[in-house]
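REVIEWER CHECKLIST
Item 1: Sequence provided? yes
Item 2: Single chain? yes
Item 3: Sequence as submitted:
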Amino acid sequence: MRRHYTLSIMLIKLDPIKRGAAFLVLLSAFAFGYNASGQVALHLLSTVGFSLLLYSAYTWFLPNKHKNAWNTLITGLILFLILHYGVTWTDLIYPLTATFLAVSIKFFVEYKGSPIVNPAAASLLLAALVLAFVPGLDRPFVSWWGASFWLLDLGPVQIPLSLLLLLPWLIFGVPSWRRWTAVLSFFAVYFVGLLLRGQGLESVQFVFTDSMIYFYATVMLIEPKTSPFRPSHQLLYGAVAAALIHVLLLVHAPYPELFALVAANLGNATLRWKPTDPA
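Item 4: Structure as written out by the authors:
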C-alpha cells in the first residue's frame, strides 16, 4: 500500500508526459524484476537504451528538430514491454529495427509538429514488413509480456500484478490526458464485440481481468498526440479501434491491436488535416 501511495503522490506532482514516463518506468522495473535475465537486460538496452541514443544523435545532427526526450523514453519503454525479448544475439535485430523505425517516425513522420501514428505500433508493423524480406527471420513477436505478468491468486479469480500497478495510472494519469471518452467507448464496443463473436463468460472475464487490454487502451490508444481531443471524435475513435480489432481477429490477421491502433490514428489525422487555402 505504501508503494502505491508514494507512486500516486509522484504522479500527481508531475506533468502529464512525465507522469506517463514515470508509470512506464515503474511497470518496466517490475516486469524486468519478474523476468530478470541477461536476455531481458539486452532487450532493455536495445529498446530504451537505443531509443535514447538515437534521440541524442538526431538532436545533434538536426538541431531544428525539437523533440521531447520524455516522449522518446515512453516509446522505448512501450517497445520494451510489448515486443518479446529474444534468446539469441540474432534476435536483437527485432528490437533494434523496431526502435530505429520508431524514433525515426517521431522525428520525420509528423503533421504540425506531432506524430501522425503511434510510433511504437507503426514501427513494429514496418519492422515486420521489412524483416519479411530477410531470409531466415520471422515476424517480430509481440507478446505483450510486460503489459501482463505475475498472476496473483485471489480466490475466485486470478489477476496479474501488472493490473494493480495500472491502478494509480488509471486514477492519476489517464484523467490528465482527458481521453476517458475514447477509453470508455473502446471498452464498450470491445465488450459487445466479444459477445458477438460468441465468446463465453470465462473468456470475457479473462479479457477484463487481464492488464493487457487496459495497457493498450490507456497507454497506447489514447496517446495525446495521436488521439483526438474533442469528445465526439473520441467516441468514434475508441469505437472504431475496438471494432477493427474484432474484424481483424475474425480474418486471422497478424497484430490486430497494432493495425487497429494505426488505422484509428490515421482516421484521427484526417480529422486534424486542413488543406491550405490557395494563395
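Item 5: Key structural point noted by reviewer: The chain has a mean pLDDT of 90.
Item 6: Recommendation: ____
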